[in-house]
Amino acid sequence: MKTYKIAITTGDTKGIGEEITKKALDFLNLAPREVLIIGRKVADVYDTVELDDSINGEFCYNSLKKAAELAKSGNIGAIVTAPVSKSALLEAGYNFSGQTEVLKKFFNKEPEMLFIAGDFRVMLLTRHLALKDVKIEPRMMEEKVLRLNDFLVKNCAVSSPKIALCALNPHAGEGGMLGREEIEIMIPTAQKLRGRGVDITNPISADALFAHAGKKYIKGEKQDYDAIIACYHDQGLCPVKALCFDKTVNTSIGLDVIRTSPSCGTAYDIAGMGIADPSSMIEAIKLAYSLGKF
What we know:
Blueprint: E1 4-9, H1 17-28, E2 35-39, E3 47-50, H2 56-72, E4 76-81, H3 86-91, H4 99-107, E5 112-117, E6 120-124, H5 138-155, E7 162-165, H6 181-195, E8 199-200, H7 206-219, E9 227-230, H8 233-244, E10 249-253, E11 258-262, H9 279-291
Parallel strand pairs: 1-2, 1-4, 2-3, 4-11, 6-9, 7-8, 7-9
Antiparallel strand pairs: 5-6, 5-10, 10-11
Helix pairs in contact: 1-9, 2-4, 5-6
Protein backbone atom coordinates (compact mmCIF):
# COMPACT_ATOMS: atom_id res chain seq x y z
CA MET A 1 0.00 0.00 0.00
CA LYS A 2 1.09 3.60 -0.59
CA THR A 3 2.31 5.75 2.27
CA TYR A 4 0.58 8.98 3.27
CA LYS A 5 1.43 11.82 5.61
CA ILE A 6 -1.95 11.75 7.33
CA ALA A 7 -5.09 9.65 7.45
CA ILE A 8 -8.41 11.32 8.26
CA THR A 9 -11.34 9.33 9.62
CA THR A 10 -14.67 10.91 8.64
CA GLY A 11 -16.25 9.98 11.97
CA ASP A 12 -19.91 9.66 12.89
CA THR A 13 -22.07 9.15 9.82
CA LYS A 14 -24.93 11.13 11.38
CA GLY A 15 -22.78 14.08 12.43
CA ILE A 16 -20.79 16.87 10.80
CA GLY A 17 -17.58 14.89 10.33
CA GLU A 18 -17.77 14.51 6.58
CA GLU A 19 -18.76 18.15 6.09
CA ILE A 20 -15.95 19.64 8.16
CA THR A 21 -13.44 17.22 6.62
CA LYS A 22 -14.38 18.29 3.10
CA LYS A 23 -14.41 21.98 4.01
CA ALA A 24 -11.04 21.72 5.75
CA LEU A 25 -9.45 19.89 2.81
CA ASP A 26 -10.88 22.41 0.35
CA PHE A 27 -9.44 25.25 2.44
CA LEU A 28 -6.00 23.69 2.92
CA ASN A 29 -5.62 22.39 -0.65
CA LEU A 30 -3.24 19.61 0.36
CA ALA A 31 -1.39 17.40 -2.09
CA PRO A 32 -3.64 14.40 -2.88
CA ARG A 33 -0.76 11.94 -2.55
CA GLU A 34 -0.27 13.00 1.10
CA VAL A 35 -3.79 12.38 2.45
CA LEU A 36 -5.81 9.20 2.91
CA ILE A 37 -9.50 9.33 3.83
CA ILE A 38 -10.85 6.46 5.97
CA GLY A 39 -14.62 6.10 6.04
CA ARG A 40 -16.59 7.67 3.22
CA LYS A 41 -15.31 9.57 0.19
CA VAL A 42 -15.58 13.33 0.72
CA ALA A 43 -13.59 14.48 -2.31
CA ASP A 44 -12.65 12.58 -5.45
CA VAL A 45 -9.11 13.92 -5.44
CA TYR A 46 -8.10 11.96 -2.30
CA ASP A 47 -7.59 8.22 -1.95
CA THR A 48 -10.24 6.66 0.28
CA VAL A 49 -10.54 3.43 2.25
CA GLU A 50 -14.32 3.02 2.18
CA LEU A 51 -16.04 1.04 4.95
CA ASP A 52 -19.48 -0.43 5.43
CA ASP A 53 -21.58 2.21 7.19
CA SER A 54 -24.75 0.18 7.82
CA ILE A 55 -24.21 0.46 11.61
CA ASN A 56 -22.93 3.88 12.63
CA GLY A 57 -21.00 2.79 15.74
CA GLU A 58 -19.46 -0.17 13.90
CA PHE A 59 -18.37 2.18 11.14
CA CYS A 60 -16.74 4.55 13.66
CA TYR A 61 -14.95 1.73 15.47
CA ASN A 62 -13.66 0.13 12.27
CA SER A 63 -12.43 3.50 10.99
CA LEU A 64 -10.21 3.86 14.05
CA LYS A 65 -9.11 0.24 13.78
CA LYS A 66 -8.04 0.74 10.16
CA ALA A 67 -6.19 3.95 11.01
CA ALA A 68 -4.31 2.20 13.81
CA GLU A 69 -3.37 -0.71 11.53
CA LEU A 70 -2.00 1.65 8.89
CA ALA A 71 -0.05 3.65 11.47
CA LYS A 72 1.53 0.52 12.96
CA SER A 73 2.51 -0.72 9.50
CA GLY A 74 4.15 2.61 8.67
CA ASN A 75 1.71 3.62 5.92
CA ILE A 76 0.63 6.86 7.62
CA GLY A 77 2.51 9.40 9.72
CA ALA A 78 -0.39 10.87 11.72
CA ILE A 79 -4.11 10.36 12.33
CA VAL A 80 -6.83 13.01 12.30
CA THR A 81 -10.21 11.89 13.62
CA ALA A 82 -13.53 13.60 12.95
CA PRO A 83 -16.01 13.57 15.87
CA VAL A 84 -17.74 10.38 17.03
CA SER A 85 -20.69 9.94 19.36
CA LYS A 86 -19.89 7.82 22.41
CA SER A 87 -23.48 6.57 22.45
CA ALA A 88 -23.11 5.36 18.85
CA LEU A 89 -20.13 3.23 19.87
CA LEU A 90 -22.08 1.86 22.82
CA GLU A 91 -25.13 1.04 20.71
CA ALA A 92 -22.87 -1.01 18.43
CA GLY A 93 -21.57 -2.96 21.43
CA TYR A 94 -18.32 -1.05 22.03
CA ASN A 95 -18.14 0.19 25.60
CA PHE A 96 -15.59 3.00 25.28
CA SER A 97 -15.85 6.47 26.73
CA GLY A 98 -14.31 8.07 23.66
CA GLN A 99 -12.05 7.68 20.64
CA THR A 100 -8.96 8.10 22.84
CA GLU A 101 -9.90 4.96 24.74
CA VAL A 102 -10.49 3.03 21.49
CA LEU A 103 -7.02 3.99 20.28
CA LYS A 104 -5.58 2.93 23.62
CA LYS A 105 -6.91 -0.57 22.90
CA PHE A 106 -5.52 -0.72 19.37
CA PHE A 107 -2.05 0.60 20.24
CA ASN A 108 -1.90 -1.04 23.67
CA LYS A 109 -0.39 2.15 25.06
CA GLU A 110 -1.61 4.80 27.47
CA PRO A 111 -2.50 7.99 25.57
CA GLU A 112 -2.80 11.41 27.16
CA MET A 113 -5.30 14.05 26.10
CA LEU A 114 -3.45 17.28 25.38
CA PHE A 115 -5.39 20.28 24.09
CA ILE A 116 -3.33 22.66 22.00
CA ALA A 117 -4.06 26.20 20.79
CA GLY A 118 -0.75 27.73 19.80
CA ASP A 119 1.46 27.83 22.90
CA PHE A 120 -1.56 27.39 25.18
CA ARG A 121 -1.46 23.69 26.01
CA VAL A 122 -3.58 21.85 28.60
CA MET A 123 -3.21 18.16 29.44
CA LEU A 124 -5.74 16.15 31.45
CA LEU A 125 -4.39 14.06 34.30
CA THR A 126 -7.57 11.95 34.16
CA ARG A 127 -9.82 11.61 31.12
CA HIS A 128 -13.44 10.51 30.75
CA LEU A 129 -14.44 9.72 34.33
CA ALA A 130 -17.33 10.59 36.60
CA LEU A 131 -16.18 13.28 39.00
CA LYS A 132 -16.67 10.93 41.95
CA ASP A 133 -14.13 8.54 40.38
CA VAL A 134 -11.34 11.08 39.91
CA LYS A 135 -8.36 9.98 41.96
CA ILE A 136 -4.80 11.27 41.79
CA GLU A 137 -2.14 8.67 42.53
CA PRO A 138 1.61 9.32 42.76
CA ARG A 139 2.74 6.79 40.16
CA MET A 140 0.02 7.78 37.70
CA MET A 141 0.83 11.47 38.08
CA GLU A 142 4.57 10.87 37.69
CA GLU A 143 4.18 8.78 34.53
CA LYS A 144 1.83 11.24 32.86
CA VAL A 145 3.96 14.28 33.63
CA LEU A 146 7.06 12.53 32.26
CA ARG A 147 5.12 11.63 29.12
CA LEU A 148 4.10 15.26 28.65
CA ASN A 149 7.60 16.56 29.31
CA ASP A 150 9.04 14.13 26.77
CA PHE A 151 6.48 15.20 24.16
CA LEU A 152 7.24 18.89 24.67
CA VAL A 153 10.96 18.27 24.20
CA LYS A 154 10.80 15.88 21.25
CA ASN A 155 7.74 17.09 19.34
CA CYS A 156 7.38 20.76 20.23
CA ALA A 157 11.08 21.70 20.30
CA VAL A 158 10.83 23.05 23.85
CA SER A 159 14.27 22.40 25.28
CA SER A 160 13.41 23.00 28.95
CA PRO A 161 9.64 22.78 29.42
CA LYS A 162 7.95 24.70 32.22
CA ILE A 163 4.83 22.90 33.44
CA ALA A 164 2.12 24.25 35.75
CA LEU A 165 0.08 21.85 37.88
CA CYS A 166 -3.54 22.58 38.77
CA ALA A 167 -4.59 21.72 42.30
CA LEU A 168 -7.39 19.18 42.64
CA ASN A 169 -9.24 21.07 45.38
CA PRO A 170 -10.42 24.70 45.59
CA HIS A 171 -7.71 27.10 46.78
CA ALA A 172 -5.18 24.25 46.47
CA GLY A 173 -6.78 22.58 49.49
CA GLU A 174 -6.38 25.65 51.73
CA GLY A 175 -3.64 24.02 53.77
CA GLY A 176 -5.63 20.81 54.16
CA MET A 177 -8.95 22.40 55.15
CA LEU A 178 -10.52 21.67 51.73
CA GLY A 179 -8.76 18.40 50.97
CA ARG A 180 -5.37 16.84 51.58
CA GLU A 181 -4.51 15.50 48.11
CA GLU A 182 -2.21 18.45 47.47
CA ILE A 183 -0.26 17.94 50.71
CA GLU A 184 -0.15 14.14 50.72
CA ILE A 185 0.13 13.28 47.02
CA MET A 186 0.67 16.14 44.60
CA ILE A 187 3.39 18.17 46.31
CA PRO A 188 5.58 15.14 47.12
CA THR A 189 5.21 13.85 43.55
CA ALA A 190 6.04 17.28 42.10
CA GLN A 191 9.14 17.37 44.30
CA LYS A 192 10.15 13.92 43.04
CA LEU A 193 9.67 15.03 39.43
CA ARG A 194 11.81 18.11 39.98
CA GLY A 195 14.47 15.74 41.30
CA ARG A 196 14.30 14.01 37.92
CA GLY A 197 14.84 17.27 36.07
CA VAL A 198 11.23 18.21 35.31
CA ASP A 199 10.40 21.89 35.85
CA ILE A 200 6.93 21.56 37.37
CA THR A 201 5.19 23.74 39.93
CA ASN A 202 3.54 22.62 43.13
CA PRO A 203 -0.26 22.57 42.73
CA ILE A 204 -1.75 26.00 41.99
CA SER A 205 -5.41 27.01 42.39
CA ALA A 206 -6.93 26.22 38.99
CA ASP A 207 -9.10 29.35 38.87
CA ALA A 208 -6.13 31.67 39.39
CA LEU A 209 -3.91 29.70 37.03
CA PHE A 210 -6.39 29.72 34.15
CA ALA A 211 -7.39 33.34 34.75
CA HIS A 212 -3.77 34.37 34.23
CA ALA A 213 -3.29 32.05 31.23
CA GLY A 214 -6.54 33.32 29.73
CA LYS A 215 -5.43 36.94 29.88
CA LYS A 216 -2.21 36.00 28.12
CA TYR A 217 -4.09 34.12 25.40
CA ILE A 218 -6.60 36.91 24.77
CA LYS A 219 -3.80 39.50 24.49
CA GLY A 220 -1.78 37.24 22.20
CA GLU A 221 1.10 37.17 24.68
CA LYS A 222 3.47 34.27 25.24
CA GLN A 223 2.30 31.89 27.93
CA ASP A 224 4.30 31.65 31.16
CA TYR A 225 4.13 27.85 31.02
CA ASP A 226 4.66 25.46 28.13
CA ALA A 227 1.78 23.33 29.41
CA ILE A 228 -0.79 23.28 32.19
CA ILE A 229 -1.94 20.02 33.75
CA ALA A 230 -5.59 19.83 34.81
CA CYS A 231 -6.67 17.12 37.24
CA TYR A 232 -9.96 16.22 35.55
CA HIS A 233 -11.91 16.76 32.35
CA ASP A 234 -13.96 19.88 32.99
CA GLN A 235 -11.27 21.59 35.06
CA GLY A 236 -9.21 21.79 31.88
CA LEU A 237 -11.82 21.79 29.15
CA CYS A 238 -14.09 24.56 30.45
CA PRO A 239 -11.40 27.27 30.22
CA VAL A 240 -9.93 25.86 27.01
CA LYS A 241 -13.24 25.81 25.15
CA ALA A 242 -14.35 29.15 26.57
CA LEU A 243 -11.14 30.81 25.42
CA CYS A 244 -10.31 29.18 22.11
CA PHE A 245 -12.93 26.63 21.01
CA ASP A 246 -12.38 27.09 17.27
CA LYS A 247 -8.59 26.97 17.52
CA THR A 248 -8.18 24.11 19.99
CA VAL A 249 -7.00 20.67 18.87
CA ASN A 250 -7.39 17.53 20.97
CA THR A 251 -4.05 15.75 20.63
CA SER A 252 -3.35 12.18 21.76
CA ILE A 253 0.25 11.75 22.89
CA GLY A 254 2.01 8.58 24.05
CA LEU A 255 0.82 6.38 21.17
CA ASP A 256 2.98 5.13 18.29
CA VAL A 257 1.63 7.97 16.17
CA ILE A 258 0.28 11.47 16.71
CA ARG A 259 -3.50 11.69 16.65
CA THR A 260 -5.35 14.99 16.46
CA SER A 261 -9.05 15.79 16.53
CA PRO A 262 -11.16 18.94 16.38
CA SER A 263 -12.67 20.27 19.62
CA CYS A 264 -16.22 20.18 18.23
CA GLY A 265 -18.65 17.31 18.72
CA THR A 266 -20.87 15.47 16.26
CA ALA A 267 -23.40 18.35 16.25
CA TYR A 268 -26.33 16.21 15.17
CA ASP A 269 -28.60 19.27 15.35
CA ILE A 270 -26.91 20.96 12.38
CA ALA A 271 -25.69 17.90 10.45
CA GLY A 272 -26.56 18.05 6.77
CA MET A 273 -27.30 21.79 6.80
CA GLY A 274 -23.96 22.83 5.36
CA ILE A 275 -23.33 25.37 8.12
CA ALA A 276 -20.76 23.53 10.27
CA ASP A 277 -17.62 25.55 11.07
CA PRO A 278 -14.48 23.66 9.97
CA SER A 279 -12.03 25.92 11.87
CA SER A 280 -11.05 23.36 14.50
CA MET A 281 -10.74 20.60 11.87
CA ILE A 282 -8.44 22.84 9.85
CA GLU A 283 -6.29 23.36 12.94
CA ALA A 284 -6.31 19.60 13.67
CA ILE A 285 -5.02 18.77 10.19
CA LYS A 286 -2.37 21.51 10.33
CA LEU A 287 -1.16 20.30 13.73
CA ALA A 288 -1.00 16.68 12.53
CA TYR A 289 1.22 17.85 9.69
CA SER A 290 3.53 19.70 12.08
CA LEU A 291 3.81 16.89 14.64
CA GLY A 292 3.57 13.71 12.55
CA LYS A 293 6.37 11.28 11.68
CA PHE A 294 7.17 11.82 7.99
